[in-house]
Amino acid sequence: MFLTLPTLLTWARIVAIPLIVGVFYLPWPNAEVNLTASLLFIVVALTDWLDGWLARRLNQTSSFGAFLDPVADKFLVSASLLVLLELGRVTALIALIIIGREIAISALREWMAQIGASRSVAVHMLGKLKTAAQMAAIVLLLFDGKLFGVIDCHLWGTWLIYVACALTIWSMAYYLQKSLPDIRAKAR
Questions:
Q1: CATH number of the 5-187 domain
Q2: Residues 67, 77: contact at Cβ < 8 Å?
Q3: 97-131 residue pLDDT tens
């Protein structure tokens, strides 16, 4: 199932990442660059929901799709955070915590799968909340202006990225705590 519609959407999400990054190198006014990058991010992020929905709806779920989808998400978030770091819209500590957690939990999930304990690190609502806060914060920080002339996206994005960071730490602690019995059992 390498070239199903859901998998092609996931590939499109990966291919679109350089477009989001590349927008910041265009000789456009900052407001246009920010708007374009945030709209691209929204469209690309929505394909994450769409590819999962289509895979279930069309009965085209696959092991490859299940592998590639979170990889695409991690690339998208990491690239966006690095752009925001370069622009001075997030701190290095925030970027390190969020990207570090993604690497650590991916490694933990791989290890748990190898020892037959992947249920202990199955996706939890806390992880979904973290992702929602993170995605909303990134959109707001990419836009970095006044939405409708009223909403200060930089301020709200900064607060949301702190919330996302706290949820990142909390969800990592949750997954580590859930996997600890399996880790201890296999360490003997």
A1: 1.20.120.1760
A2: no
A3: 999 999 998 888 888 888 777 777 777 788 889 99
Percentages (nearest 5) of helix, strand, coil residues in the chain: 80, 0, 15
pLDDT given for residue 87 in this prediction: 96
The structural domains of the chain, with segments of one domain joined by +, span 5-187
| Distance, CA of 53 to chain centre | 17
For 126-138, the pLDDT digits (tens) are 888 999 999 999 9
In sequence order, what are the beta bridge partners of 152?
146
Question: Which amino acid is present at 144?
Answer: D
Length of the chain: 188
Strands 151-152 and 146-147: antiparallel
Q: Is 28 helix (H, G, I), strand (E, B) or coil?
A: coil
